Amino acid sequence: MRAVADNNIVISGLLWRGPSRDLLDAAREGKLELFTSGALLAELEDVLQRTKFVKRLAEAQLQPRDLVNGFAALATVVQPGPITPVVIRDPDDDAVVACAVAAAATSIISGDGHLLELKKYREIEIIKVADFITQLGKG
Length: 139
What we know:
Blueprint lengths: L1 E4 L1 H9 L3 H10 L4 E5 H11 L2 H9 L4 H11 L1 E3 L15 H10 L3 E3 L3 H4 L3 E2 L2 E4 L1 H10 L1
């Protein structure tokens, strides 16, 4: 399986236990291929520097840059081309869709309502992480 994990899933998996961590573990075990882009990695680093994550990062003795580098090593970085706007209410989400197109991904895994309401883009399924983990377990 080829998938793009939205940064909300990546952050959750990097900082806490649960389905998002299970997703990252599955990628580490070679059960799926994760893809990202330079734009998504830049956004990941920016979001990890927000005040709401300072305490959690300090407790875990982690730096945002280290987490970004670790995720970049786990995922394959692709260079997306331009796409026609897809997520009208949140254009930043188009970066996730563009990454999935460039990666020829089968799935986008997200907790973002704007993406999830699309359900599908072309042949790319847009799914919650728990549902993806369930599918992965059956595959």
